[in-house]
Design a protein that fits this description.
Shape: globular
Distance between the termini: 67 Å
Order of helices and strands: HEEEEHEHEHEHHEEHHEHEEHE
Strand content: 15-25%
Helix content: 25-40%
Number of helices: 10
Radius of gyration: 20 Å
Length: 314
C-alpha cells in the first residue's frame, strides 16, 4: 500500500509539472484548445476573443510573468497535429484577419526532417579539426539537474545574443527564464541536448530538442490522465518523434565551421534507432541560415504560419 501510494504521488507530481508546461506553451493536441489565456473561438457567432492588454505597462508585466503573447496564425497544415510547443487555430482565422485590414508582417514554416540519404564522410574527419582549431569541446553533465545548473544561464545569455536580430524576439526576463526552466525540466533528455564550450568553458553553441509528446496528449484528448502521463514518460524514454526547440551559435563563431558540427549532431540524433523524424517548429522564411541547415536533410515543409500588422490612425 505504501509503494502504491508513493507511485500515485509521483504521478501527481509529474502531472502538476506537465500542467504547468501546458499552460505556458498553450498545448493544442489534434486541434483541442487547452490554454487558459489564449484565443478562444466561438464559431456560432464568428467571434474571436483575445486577452486584452491595456497599454505597455501591462504588456511588460505579462512578459515578466512569462505569459505568452503568440501572434503566429496557422495558415497551412490544418491536417497536421500541432507540436507541444505550438498552438492550433481554425482555418477561417486567415480570411477573418485579412478582411479586417491586417497585412502580412512575417511568415514562418514548419518542417518534418529525417536523416539524409547520404552522410558526407568528410564531416567525420573535418569536425575534430574544427574543434581542435577553435579549442572547443562538448560540455558534459551528470544528470538533468547538473545540466541546468551548469549551462542554463549561459544558454539564456547566448539566446539573447544569437537571436538578437531575429524578428519577434525580445531579451529574456528573469521571470521568463525561471518559468522556462520549471516548465521544461521534465522533458529534458541529455541524449537530445548539446553544448559546445571553448577552452575557458564559455558557451559557443548549443542545441535543445525535446521528445514529442503530442501523440501521448492527443490520445487523452488533451487531458493529463494517469495513462497520459505514463505515455509521456514512455515517449521521453524512447521517442519516435523529436521536437527541435532552439539551436544557437555565438555570433563571434559564426564563420568558424560550427554549422558542420551542428549538422552532424542533428544527424546523429536522427540516426538513433527509435527516432523516425523530427519537427522543426517555427522557422522564419527569410532566415537563410536555418533554412539552409534543414536543406541538408530530407525535408517536408508541412505547416506555414503568419503574423499580421495593421497601422492604426490615432
Amino acid at each position: 500500500a505504501v509503494r502504491a501510494g508513493d507511485e500515485r504521488e509521483g504521478l501527481l507530481d509529474v502531472g502538476h509539472q506537465l500542467l504547468r508546461v501546458a499552460g505556458a506553451a498553450g498545448v493544442v493536441a489534434g486541434g483541442l484548445d487547452a490554454a487558459g489565456e489564449r484565443a478562444v473561438v466561438v464559431e456560432a457567432d464568428d467571434v474571436v476573443a483575445l486577452p486584452a492588454v491595456h497599454g505597455e505597462v501591462e504588456l511588460l508585466e505579462r512578459l515578466e510573468r512569462g505569459l505568452d503573447v503568440d501572434a503566429e496564425v496557422l495558415v497551412e497544415g490544418f491536417d497536421r497535429y500541432s507540436t507541444f510547443e505550438e498552438q492550433y487555430n481554425y482555418d477561417y482565422y486567415e480570411k477573418l484577419i485579412e478582411n479586417c485590414g491586417y497585412k502580412t508582417e512575417a511568415e514562418w514554416n514548419e518542417s518534418m526532417i529525417s536523416k539524409p540519404d547520404h552522410v558526407d564522410e568528410r564531416l567525420k574527419t573535418l569536425i575534430p579539426r574544427i574543434m581542435q582549431r577553435n579549442r572547443l569541446h562538448f560540455g558534459k553533465a551528470k544528470n538533468v539537474n547538473d545540466f541546468i545548473a551548469l549551462y542554463a544561464d549561459k544558454i539564456f545569455d547566448l539566446i539573447d545574443r544569437s537571436y538578437n536580430d531575429i524578428y519577434g524576439t525580445v531579451p529574456l526576463t528573469d521571470g521568463m527564464k525561471k518559468m522556462l526552466i520549471q516548465n521544461f525540466r521534465l522533458l529534458i533528455d541529455l541524449d537530445h541536448v548539446g553544448v559546445i564550450l571553448d577552452e575557458n568553458d564559455e558557451l559557443r553553441a548549443f542545441g535543445l530538442c525535446f521528445p514529442s509528446i503530442a501523440e501521448a496528449v492527443r490520445k487523452s484528448k488533451g487531458r493529463f490522465t494517469p495513462a497520459a502521463i505514463l505515455r509521456i514518460l514512455k515517449a521521453k524514454r524512447r521517442p519516435e518523434v523529436i521536437d527541435f526547440a532552439l539551436v544557437g551559435v555565438d555570433p563571434d563563431y559564426a564563420n568558424r565551421g560550427l554549422g558542420a558540427i551542428v549538422t552532424m549532431w542533428i544527424t546523429d540524433i536522427l540516426s538513433d534507432g527509435t527516432v523516425k523524424y523530427a519537427e522543426t517548429n517555427l522557422n522564419l522564411v527569410d532566415n537563410s541560415e536555418i533554412q539552409n541547415l534543414w536543406g541538408r536533410f530530407n525535408r517536408v515543409i508541412h505547416k506555414k504560419r503568419r503574423a499580421y500588422v495593421k497601422d492604426l490612425e490615432v
